[in-house]
Amino acid sequence: MPARATQDTFRGFPAAALDFYAGLEADNTKSYWTANRAVYEEAVRAPFLALSRAVEDEFGPLHLFRPHRDVRFSRDKSPYKTNQGAVTEGAGGALYYVHLDVRGLFAASGYYRMAPDQLERFRTAVLDERAGPALERELAALPRGRYELERDALKTAPRGYPRDHPRIELLRRKSVTIGRRFPVAAWLQTRRALDRVTSVWREAAGVNTWLDRHVGPSILPPPDPAP
């Protein structure tokens, strides 16, 4: 059956998408991928393209990550990713991310792995006696127990910053993203999956507004590509 890569309306992720990734986790080989390429196109890529069109007006079009892993510097030489991820960037710099794997759906938003200039602006704002507490309030306002913060953080205080600062947990952070995992359920195969994703992105608005105002996109040149 030909892939419906031009599907216009997002209707959820079919069960075949989860079956595809269950098989890929068990057999991460080129032969499996080649034999099931049509399933990937039909059940994974096409729904993601439809999801992109559904969120484009509010958040921007999604960039789909390529399914192949970069194994050049990894001990794990498995050639394919066992999830499909996609991301878009808001006008102020905040990222909106979603991925699907055999365990379900994950959606997140915020600033991921901030560049050195972003970290400098972020820490300056956290130290500020008005801006710092404002971020704490935005994080505290998130529904308790619903969201997880990215764990990307230093083990101790950044160099030159006091270890006993009342906002040391924020100062140690290299990322500020709010994420939520949704286990597999019947709604995943319906348009309600769109509602789950956008609800996370919208509830991150207060934190993202703070980040866009006090941090913003990096202005450093991109790193040189690997040889």
Write up this protein.
The protein is an alpha+beta fold. The chain has one domain (15-214): Protein of unknown function DUF1054 (BirA Bifunctional Protein, domain 2, 2-Layer Sandwich), CATH 3.30.930.20. The radius of gyration is 19 Å and the shape is globular. Strand 2 (83-89) and strand 3 (95-101) form a beta hairpin. It has helices at 15-26, 30-35, 37-59, 116-127, 131-140, 168-171, 192-203, 205-214; strands at residues 63-64, 83-89, 95-101, 104-111, 148-149, 176-183. The chain is built from eight helices and six strands; from the N terminus they run H-H-H-E-E-E-E-H-H-E-H-E-H-H. Helix 1 crosses helix 3 and helix 5 runs antiparallel to helix 8. It has a six-stranded antiparallel sheet with strand order 1-2-3-4-6-5.
Structural class: alpha+beta
As for the number of domains, it is 1
Question: What is the CA-based Rg, rounded?
Answer: 19 Å
Q: Average the pLDDT over all residues and give the rounded result.
A: 92
Poorly predicted runs are 1-6
Describe the largest sheet. 6 strands, antiparallel
Query: Tally the helices: what do you get?
Result: 8
At CATH's second level, what is the architecture? 2-Layer Sandwich
> Could you give the order of the helices and strands?
HHHEEEEHHEHEHH
What gap, in angstroms, lies between the N and C termini?
40 Å
Please bin the fraction of helical residues: 25-40%
Number of strands: 6
What's the overall geometry? globular
